[in-house]
């Protein structure tokens, strides 16, 4: 029997976790990061390539504005840390309306000025959504926030997504915003990896989100991030890990017992730095173990973005 999975969504300012086996898709956001970030497999921190540094952000031309990504020195999304403010400018908060108030349920990625990518399990046909960009501390209005509504007809869930089977994959959805986001130092589009890209075991990536800080624990006000090294398909499908029934080749495993995604992180980006220094969004937080967000040998599971480039492009083109 495949290990049980739990989704990473969250209800009103509740943590949104990745799904766990068997998938229990609960819209309750809450990513958890450890206060400790392990070094990459070779023991050295990821190096920033030559580029332009300004206002504490690392930019590589010719990206519009600035793809501001600052490497964390430690981590909490379970056991992550407070992210450097606005250091993941493509990170969004997906929020739903209840009793006239919008609350965080999942993360996501701005992939074009008017398009957001998130997890399919974050979406309910009965809810009204808006996307918040330029967000960092949810406990206060800091100024850069942009709130943009999403019409029900502009939500596109992958046609092969099955909400009763997280392990079947296809946990991806696109949302077309009612108006374009204003790109600036706080809001930027994330870059997608080339189609078919598969990262090697141990590749250093970072999960960001407002998910729970511990299994069943509190949701953070400030955006968290954590180092989440890739666990390759061969390792992740070992019988004493997730096993071959739970993990498809269209998924990525990352993290481990110390750093993990948790409720509220669902739909959020797995950020990985490419050879040219640019950051790419390789994963969409999908599910974790029902035994706990940071269960040993049950790394966080992400939808592998590079397996869906064609569907993303087609959906955006057909609904422009």
TrEMBL record:
PROSITE patterns: TRYPSIN_DOM, TRYPSIN_HIS, TRYPSIN_SER. Keywords: Disulfide bond, Hydrolase, Protease, Serine protease, Signal, Zymogen. One of its GO terms (molecular function) is serine-type endopeptidase activity. Residues 37-49 have a biased composition (Pro residues). It comes from the Eukaryota. InterPro entries: Peptidase_S1_Elastase_sf, Peptidase_S1_PA, Peptidase_S1_PA_chymotrypsin, Peptidase_S1A, Trypsin_dom, TRYPSIN_HIS, TRYPSIN_SER. Residues 1-54 are annotated as: Disordered. Residues 18-27 have a biased composition (Low complexity). Residues 77-317 form the Peptidase S1 domain. GO terms for biological process: proteolysis. Gene3D superfamilies: Trypsin-like serine proteases (2.40.10.10). PANTHER family: CHYMOTRYPSIN-LIKE ELASTASE FAMILY MEMBER, CHYMOTRYPSIN-LIKE ELASTASE FAMILY MEMBER 3B. This is Chymotrypsin like elastase 3B. It comes from Gallus gallus (Chicken). The gene is CELA3B.
């Amino acid at each position: 029997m495949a290990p049980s999975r739990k989704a990473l969504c969250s209800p009103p300012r509740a943590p949104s976790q990745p799904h766990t086996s068997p998938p229990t898709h609960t819209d309750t956001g809450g990513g958890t990061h450890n206060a400790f970030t392990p070094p990459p497999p070779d023991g050295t921190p990821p190096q920033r390539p030559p580029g332009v540094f300004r206002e504490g952000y690392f930019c590589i031309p010719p990206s519009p504005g600035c793809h501001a990504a600052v490497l964390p020195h430690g981590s909490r999304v379970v056991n992550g840390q407070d992210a450097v403010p606005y250091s993941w400018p493509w990170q969004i908060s997906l929020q739903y309306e209840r009793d006239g108030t919008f609350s965080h349920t999942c993360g996501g990625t701005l992939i074009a000025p008017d398009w957001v990518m998130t997890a399919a399990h974050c979406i309910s046909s009965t809810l009204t959504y808006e996307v918040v960009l330029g967000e960092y501390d949810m406990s206060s209005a800091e100024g850069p926030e942009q709130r943009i509504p999403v019409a029900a007809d502009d939500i596109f869930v992958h046609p092969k997504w099955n909400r009763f089977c997280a392990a079947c994959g296809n946990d991806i959805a696109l949302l077309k915003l009612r108006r374009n986001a204003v790109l600036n130092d706080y809001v930027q589009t994330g870059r997608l990896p080339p189609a078919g890209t598969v990262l090697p075991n141990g590749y250093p990536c970072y999960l960001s989100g407002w998910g729970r800080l511990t299994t069943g624990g509190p949701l953070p006000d400030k955006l968290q991030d954590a180092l989440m090294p890739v666990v390759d398909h061969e390792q992740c499908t070992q019988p004493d890990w997730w096993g071959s029934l739970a993990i498809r080749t269209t998924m990525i495993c990352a993290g481990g017992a110390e750093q993990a995604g948790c409720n509220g992180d669902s739909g959020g980006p797995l950020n990985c730095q490419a050879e040219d220094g640019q950051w790419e969004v390789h994963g969409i937080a999908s599910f974790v173990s029902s035994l706990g967000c940071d269960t040993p040998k049950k790394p966080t599971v992400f939808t592998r973005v590079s397996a869906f480039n064609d569907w993303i492009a087609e959906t955006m083109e057909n609904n422009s």
